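If your schedule permits, I should be very grateful for your opinion on a structural question. What I wish to show you is a protein chain and, alongside it, a tokenised description of its three-dimensional fold. Would you kindly read the sequence against the tokens and tell me how you understand this chain to fold? Here, with my thanks, is the record as I have it:

===
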Amino acid sequence: MMQFDMYEFLYIAHIDGRVVPHIWLGTDASWTNVIEEWPGVRKAWHEWRHAYSKGFKAYVDQKVDQAERGE
């Protein structure tokens, strides 16, 4: 879950304009791949999503939903 913590930190910094864009783009692309390729990560997200901020939950939920639908 510490990896999700880091992802959330960068997500919030990105939204607030406090992170260099290419760092956010690289991190987000990497996490998108992890979410798509690793069902265990999606399972962990479902179990622990309650611990994260509303905006971040919605963002990751969308990625998880797309991965589970095979998009």
User: Anything to note?
Assistant: The chain is about 80% helix and 0% strand. Residues 21-37 form the longest helix (17 residues).
